[in-house]
User: Fold this.
Amino acid sequence: MFNLTIDLPEAPYPIVIQNNVIKEMGQKILPFIQRKKVVIITDKNVYAAYGEALIQNIEKSGFQVHLILLYPGENSKSLGVLECIYKELLSYNMTKSDLLIAFGGGVIGDLTGFAAATFLRGVPFIQIPTSLIAQVDSSIGGKTAVNLKEGKNLVGSFYHPKAVFIDPQLLQSLSPRFFSDGMAEVIKYGCIKDSELFLKLEKLDKDQLMLHIDEIVFRCCEIKKRVVEEDEKDENTRMLLNFGHTFGHGVEKVFNYKKYTHGEGVAIGMYHITKKSEEMGYTQMGTSNRIKALLTKLNLPSQLPDIDETQLLEALSPDKKTRGDDIHLILLRSIGDSFIHPIAKRDLKDFF
Ligand code: GLY
Assistant:
């Protein structure tokens, strides 16, 4: 079991990493709720696998549980679904003394967080992330959002949960593809901030990863904690977490979010940008080959697919990584040492 606190001046909150913690949630939520009403937002897949176990445990502690069950997938992260959630919350008579729980991957976490941020101008919520990507990244740091048809996460807010409860045991049921998807973000943490973590990932074989997963999740959460504490509102250091994401998001978008998962896009982006920055003399030679070897071991792609340059450039905008006419690329000096490299958007094509 590992405990961390996100030490933000206005609202510090705990992150608990504990195997089987979902079977103790009835007790764990006590400090965060004043009345007896809990609304869980989840998707049909997560519900089928773990919903009953979670609900039974919470009900055993005397809480009244309401469930909002969504279709899995990115399409649920929309303004239309958000409005349905508001209506359900009204029908359950949800107040600021009750508790909302996001139980799922990144889509459920971002959407529930945004509903919590905006319903009645803010109701308390906690995160119980179930995918690797959500456990190491999206459940921590208060980014909440919905998508517009023009792009992902274009409407959102910073709104922190009251607590994050991470159960690494839930990862056992992830498909190999979605385990690898999350491992792309784990590799990212090694690249930007933790050469020891990167080395550890290089040494472990694929089957050993799951044996060490709680410690790996902890190390990623610890890095995210430090970065968020330093730059909560994403104005500076937090942008380092976007390593690989500029091209990654572009690749995802060009293929209409159907061919590549988020992690696969990031994997391609990390290798591609590092190869280019090596050629341009910003990065220690050999770094991109190490990244590629690790991605390949974890069944992640590294090559930029055959896409039209204009199409990809188009897909990069509008994007939250742009500031005015500049775009902030994240580059590595070497593994574990990253920096922000602002360039004019028109110079982006040099990185192809
Ligand atoms: N996922 C990147 C961030 O939280 O800033």
Notes: Residues 176-193 form the longest helix (18 residues).
